[in-house]
Specification:
Blueprint (H helix, E strand, L loop, with lengths): L4 E6 L3 H16 L3 E2 L9 E8 L4 H17 L4 E6 H5 L1 H5 L4 E4 L2 H8 L19 E4 L1 E2 L10 H5 L3 E2 L2 H13 L4 E5 L14 H10 L6 E4 L9 H9 L6 E3 L7 H7 L5 H14 L4 E8 L6 H13 L4 E6 L19 H21 L5 E8 L2 E4 L4 E3 L10 E10 L2 E6 L1
Parallel strand pairs: 1-2, 1-3, 3-4, 4-5, 6-9, 9-10, 11-12, 12-13, 16-18
Antiparallel strand pairs: 7-8, 14-15, 14-17, 15-16, 17-18
Helix pairs in contact: 8-9, 12-13
Amino acid sequence: MPGPKVLVAATGCKLNQAEADLWKAWFVQNGYELAEDARQEVSVKVCLVTTCSVTGRADRSSVALIRRLHRRYPDAKIKVTGCGATRIPERMAALPGVTRIIGYEEKENLILPLRYGKDSCDVFVISRNRAFLRVGEGCERRCSYCVVSRIRGPVRSKPKETILEELHALHSEGFGEVVLVALNLGIWGQERGESLAGLLGKIEQEGRGAPRIRLTSLEPDTISDELLGVLATSSRFCPHLHIPLQSGDDRILEQMERPYKTKDYAELIGRIKRMRPDACIGTDIITSTPGEDEESFARTLEFVRAMPVNHLHVFTYSPRPGTPMANMSRKSIKTPRERTKLLRAEGERKSFEFRKRFQGKVRQAVLLSPTRALTDNYIDVKIPPTSKPVRSLVNVKITEVTPEGTMGIVK
């Protein structure tokens, strides 16, 4: 007899998405049947929401998701976890339908022991066509604007042997690509005297038994020469790195308590591009922070224009209570979102220039759907319908590039 139906939903980063998959596995282990929101199944008894709190907008998105689920499944008990549940539990608990707040420590106690391929933690719970594998948690950094590191605590890295076992399990179930996810991936293993470069070297030795690997964000100062050497010489790892900049002005970086200067960042990006000219480099930028005047923003815009980065994630500063930056006096900015808009436009221009370089070229790609593929260097390609299995790796020839998108064919 099937168990009660549960719907697991998540907002926010890849780490949240990875944890949502672990929650699905936990519910299956405990006798529940998974439901899909797209089907709007009326028999849903429980909704589990993993929330994000990185910005005010993230808080609002989490609240909106909970309200929508309550309207859609009015009889379901809604359980809330994630960063939002830990940071603003009273606000989350007061929402209609919410019956329980699962704080950070309780969440970790429940999902931390779960391993794909072992103890009935079935890979089938992953609904997307790339697997996000959580390999670490926590961050020792305390950037002045960031609340997430203060919520998620110290660094804890998953053992190397466990990661290799999970990669084998995911690969055997057809995942051509796995994204390694952690709050601060670059310091994986540091608490045990290990390194991310050492982990990747071990994965490289696994040969055909492991999938293609993509890395989530890497902090600039955690990217060692050893790590770059592994990434530059292996076809197992995607030539795609997301390296947060946050600001192109040294004074603002100091206010943010970021441990590098723009000169260091420029040297790092230049070194990567010399080693892998085909690599896609993405970055994060926060605009309109306290202290960012017109001159500071102009320096950021000029710096970004000069950098060979190819993908920008830009957002307007949002004060997070409990962080030092939230207490700083903020300069009056008439149109803060205009700064974000300018940088996003620059990001679109850089993306188009990067993608245009590969028109007529063939790249390895993972099939996200029968009509969509993602290349190793992070180009999202629209393709004619293919019968090849989703999740698998294929070769795609890029046939057309426009500012709006990229088209190609499976070879």
